[in-house]
Design goal:
Distance between the termini: 96 Å
Mean pLDDT: 81
Shape: elongated
Helix content: 10-25%
Low-confidence stretches: 1-27, 30-34
């Protein structure tokens, strides 16, 4: 009788212990800031999520084209690698955020760990980024739902969910609010002080003069984000509307 009672108690303890495992025990990224806010409980797939079956290079080589970001495939060693269409350059790279519960848990892009190739791992989330000719980054996010396995249990590829483009929650980039490509290229070239492809509010606040004459600019939308601007030379462009700077026109020396 004592033996049976001990075995039952051991079973209860085992069951309780099994239910008490943490996200770390399950290999999932804790949503406590230690991984930039990625991870946490599963959330529904975001609107625009696409699920694709991606065969690796040894088994058909599926190429996935990410809208505005670029293309990728899985190579013979089961790594994500860029697919070059000709106009996409080697600036496409990847970064893993570790094991997460789904695509919606891939939220904040890391500042380091980026590479041109990264291992495909079941249940892991990833960011992809592409540096445009205008000097700023466009992002996408991926989630490997599960491997595609053969009857012999070898990896043939993976089922991948993605959203492209996607703006990471932790990146404040005012370039995304500049619709004119020529104006955006000028701002990125002149004021992205650390050359990371992002123009932050901190970088914008230090700008007091903009000299962007003769650049085929047609819109100054977004210039209102440069709150300390005192001189603006936008002469010899194609601008017809100066409403974006009306709020501080009295403080700006406008050369047109």
């Amino acid at each position: 009788m004592k033996t049976k009672f001990f075995m039952m108690m051991a079973l209860v303890v085992l069951l309780i212990g099994g239910n008490a495992c943490t996200e770390e025990d399950k290999g999932l990224v804790p949503d406590d800031g230690t991984s930039l806010g990625n991870g946490g409980d599963a959330v529904p797939d975001p609107e625009g999520t696409i699920l694709v079956s991606v065969r690796n290079a040894n088994n058909g080589k599926t190429v996935v084209g990410l809208f505005e970001t670029g293309g990728f495939y899985i190579d013979g060693g089961d790594n994500f690698v860029p697919y070059h269409y000709g106009y996409y350059a080697d600036d496409i790279d990847f970064c893993s955020v570790g094991a997460v519960n789904g695509l919606g848990n891939v939220r904040e892009a890391p500042s380091k760990g980026w590479a041109s190739t990264v291992a495909v791992q079941e249940g892991h989330g990833y960011f992809v980024r592409y540096k445009t000719n205008n000097g700023y980054y466009v992002y996408a996010r991926l989630y490997v739902e599960k491997y595609i396995l053969s009857a012999a249990n070898t990896i043939l590829g993976a089922y991948v969910k993605y959203q492209s483009p996607y703006e990471p929650e932790n990146i404040e980039d005012i370039l995304v609010d500049i619709p004119d490509a020529q104006f955006r290229a000028y701002l990125a070239a002149e004021f992205d002080t650390n050359s990371d492809g992002i123009l932050t509010p901190q970088e914008a606040v230090s700008v007091t003069a903009i000299w962007c004459s003769s650049r085929q600019i047609s819109s100054l939308q977004g210039i209102e984000l440069f709150t300390n601007l005192t001189i603006l030379d936008c002469s010899f462009n194609e601008i017809t509307e100066f409403a974006p700077i009306a709020f501080q026109a009295n403080d700006i020396e406008l050369l047109e």
